[in-house]
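ok trying this again, last paste got cut off
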Amino acid sequence: MQTPVVMLGANFYTALGAIRTLGRHGIPVYALDYHFPTAYALSSRYVTEKIKCPNVNTDEAGLARFLVELGKSFEERPVLMATADNYALLISRYAEQLNAYYIFPDNSGHLLEKIIDKSGLAQLAKEQNLLIPQTLIVDSSTRLPGVLNNISYPAIIKPALSHKFVSLFRQKCLRVNDRDNLEKALKTVQSSNLEVMVQQIIPGFDDQMYVFDVYINTEGRPTHTFTGQKLRQFPINFGSSTLTRQVYVPELTELGLEYMQKLGYRGYGEIEFKKNPDDGRFYMIEINARLSTLNILFDKCGVEFTYIMYKDLVGDPLPDYHLAENKPWVFWHAYEDFLSSTAYLRQKQLSLKEIVRPWLRYHKAHAIWAADDIKPLFAFARLIFGKVTSKLYRLITRKS
């Protein structure tokens, strides 16, 4: 039997894509989540066993202890994979304890914690001379006049760690167009003892967002690379991809490799860049140190990063492959792309023709749908239906 995988988190299509990749190769996948009703990836036929675990957001130490006990039940160490930042942080923080029971990439010196914490990434970028937008760190002790007078507008407020920020503002980031709006938002942030970044917005539409994906093996050598271009996002302008095409960008590959090597990164990783149309330069926006939402697009293009990482970690690496041509594939999340397209039309950022043209041009790598694994689609549909009906009920009762 092949070495199993323990997958942390199953409530997003990141996990679903990774589970399918591994399952199609006959690899047993033990999928963990703390809330089964929303974990639609658990419906996949490729899940070997569903395991309920402590909530990583409220009991990280408890989940670490749970993983240690779970690890003891396997005859050989399984590969441990994270589908979200909070799980990647857990692996980094408890690496010493987990290493005795699991296999995972070795990123020493708490590198993942620095990368996932947006302020830590800004500091790393400064130390390694990596090009990022103008960025100022704000916490409860920061003097606001220094921030208000030294940032270019429009700007964006981003949390160091997102889940507390989202619970306060109900969104992952805030756009501010002037000094007054920034001052008001930052006072709220400081009163809540949150750490955030105020960052310059690089000009250009969403299609100026690019991704560089790489696998760096246990020896520190990049073995597989991929580049892509976002076409649409949800929420629009500052969200996750809903339509992303594979496109070979040699300059981006060279730059991404330089950045990852400077950081000493190991394993699979993804850098998001934005190209400034004014100067043509690529500015690093963030690094994703966990599995990607674009997993199905990678598979369609022949760069199965989840499987590539698995094979390297179990000591049977695949041949190197650096994708250096254009494939006719786009990642497509149908539901979220409908929402984003509606918003683009409403705000007159795109015309109907501009929305339809790229959708018709490429083959679709579907975020949720798969002909050989249809149950997750129905589980996702039930989840969305429940959210819609709940929202309608609140609106009706509020009016009555």
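PB: full thing came through this time. The first strand starts at residue 5 and ends at 8.
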